[in-house]
């Protein structure tokens, strides 16, 4: 079984219903969020007088705010109750949230939609711990890298499709808002139906007494996890990936319109290439690791994130020079014109490779956390990681707003992120040298087998 392809899991009851449940959740999240960000970017005056750049960073920040407040409680619920039943209850909550969002779309109420963004953040907060704790309960340790790779691929394909659908549906006149409202409710219902087939997953700590104080429990979770250095460094490394990704993706709407001089289809294309890259990198992990948890892939991914993040900055400069020289005063570019401009294909390749190396970086970290943490504490460990993720993403949103206010261009934000990635990951690998040792061993093994 461990030597079989990761795709064989799709034929197995222990994996397939769970996969489709989480896939549809990621899809729905991003149809909704991207539709909202797109309409604000390209039709802002009809909705608000607030600065669009501020909203493009504020809305993702509000989405992850519940992770700070409710992750600790979510981890306890997942360890105390059957995970299949928890997932079904979460999917029912999603249906209700999308109902509230539908009212917001139909009444043109921005703040009702923002409330739904926070609600979907709560939905994802509740689903995160049960999602990652489910896998080690149903997969053998040699299957974890492949299983996590498939789940990450599914998550980012869901993100990709959601971003494409959200951006395309919302601009269809005159029915775009209604299409988004109805579509998100339909996806939530379909996800709930898929969850009904998830096999029962007995809780590891049924006698756990719930602590409802999020701050006390959050500190307890982080203190417990920090006792295992390798697990805690992996948690920090995973959170850094979300900092990097949040900082990068939040800039794409304005980057496409103001810097690349493109319409919403260019924004969608950037998202497509990044998401395809993450999915490809996640799936490559099983092949590169030879069906085991290979920590040597983490430095490889970190190197790629730095190199191609900086390369995206350089490609943007080349592209901008060409646009100013050849297209001054012209309208927004379509995909064909964008690709023909100097630097266009280079930007797309950079976005794809950033995504691919991001997948290679994060999948082994998740497998390490799942395999080395206390089996009775998996959900609470993941909840602690989600708290860190949320704090890192809030920091990313704040940093982006500060850099924009300071006059930085979006490509300069990409450059700063790449430099920070080099410094942060180098510090993590210094604290936990196993990553570097395994990376050197992996390189030697690849050289010997070539």
Structure write-up:
The radius of gyration is 21 Å and the shape is globular. The longest helix has 30 residues. It has one domain: MFS general substrate transporter like domains (Growth Hormone, Chain: A), CATH 1.20.1250. Helices cover 79% and strands 0% of the residues. The chain has 450 residues and is mostly helical. The protein starts with 15 loop residues before the first helix and ends with a helix. α11 crosses α16. The protein is built from 16 helices and no strands.
Distance between the termini: 26 Å
State the helix count.
16
Uncertain runs: none
How much strand content do the residues show? under 5%
Helicity range: over 70%
What CATH first level would be assigned?
Mainly Alpha
Give me the strand/helix succession: HHHHHHHHHHHHHHHH
- CATH topology, anyone? Growth Hormone, Chain: A
Number of domain units: 1
Q: What about the largest sheet?
A: none
Mean pLDDT: 86
Structural class: mainly alpha
Brief overview:
This protein has 450 residues and is mostly helical. The protein contains 16 helices and no strands. It has helices spanning 16-42, 52-80, 83-107, 110-138, 144-170, 176-195, 214-226, 229-249, 252-259, 264-289, 297-326, 335-340, 344-372, 378-405, 410-431, 434-449.
């Amino acid at each position: 079984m461990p030597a079989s392809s990761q795709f064989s899991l799709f034929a197995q009851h222990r994996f397939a219903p769970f996969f489709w449940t989480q896939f549809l959740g990621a899809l729905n999240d991003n149809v909704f969020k991207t539709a909202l960000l797109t309409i604000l970017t390209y039709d802002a005056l009809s909705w608000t007088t607030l600065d669009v750049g501020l909203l493009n960073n504020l809305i993702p920040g509000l989405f992850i705010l519940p992770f700070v407040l409710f992750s600790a409680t979510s981890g306890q619920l997942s360890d105390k109750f059957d995970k299949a039943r928890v997932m079904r209850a979460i999917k029912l909550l999603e249906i209700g949230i999308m109902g509230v969002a539908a009212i917001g779309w139909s009444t043109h109420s921005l703040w009702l939609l923002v409330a739904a963004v926070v609600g979907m953040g709560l939905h994802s907060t509740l689903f995160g711990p049960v999602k990652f704790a489910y896998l080690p309960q149903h997969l053998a340790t040699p299957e974890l890298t492949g299983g996590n790779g498939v789940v990450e691929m599914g998550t980012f394909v869901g993100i990709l499709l959601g971003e494409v659908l959200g951006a395309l549906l919302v601009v269809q006149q005159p029915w775009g808002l209604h299409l988004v409202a109805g579509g998100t409710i339909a996806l939530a219902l379909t996800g709930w139906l898929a969850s009904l087939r998830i096999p029962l997953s007995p809780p590891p700590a049924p006698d756990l007494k719930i602590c409802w104080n999020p701050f006390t429990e959050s500190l307890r979770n982080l203190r417990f996890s920090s006792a295992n250095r390798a697990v805690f460094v992996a948690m920090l490394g995973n959170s850094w990936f979300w900092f990097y990704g949040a900082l990068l993706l939040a800039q794409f709407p304005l980057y496409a319109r103001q810097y690349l001089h493109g319409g919403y289809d260019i924004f969608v294309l950037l998202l497509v290439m990044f998401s395809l890259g993450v999915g490809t990198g996640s799936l490559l992990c099983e092949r590169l690791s030879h069906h085991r948890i290979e920590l040597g892939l983490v430095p490889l991914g970190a190197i790629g994130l730095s190199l191609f993040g900086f390369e995206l900055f350089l490609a943007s400069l080349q592209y901008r020079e060409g646009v100013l020289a050849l297209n001054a005063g012209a309208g927004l570019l379509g995909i064909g014109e964008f690709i023909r401009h100097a630097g266009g294909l280079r930007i797309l390749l950079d976005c794809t490779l950033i995504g691919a190396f991001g997948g290679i970086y994060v999948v082994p970290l998740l497998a390490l956390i799942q395999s080395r943490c206390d089996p009775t504490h998996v959900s609470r460990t993941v909840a602690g990681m989600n708290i860190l993720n949320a704090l890192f993403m809030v920091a990313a949103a704040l940093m982006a707003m500060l850099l924009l206010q300071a006059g930085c261009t979006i490509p300069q934000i990409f450059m700063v992120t790449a430099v920070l990635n080099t410094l942060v990951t180098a510090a993590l690998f210094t604290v936990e040298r196993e990553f570097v040792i395994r990376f050197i061993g992996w390189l030697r093994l690849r050289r010997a087998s070539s």
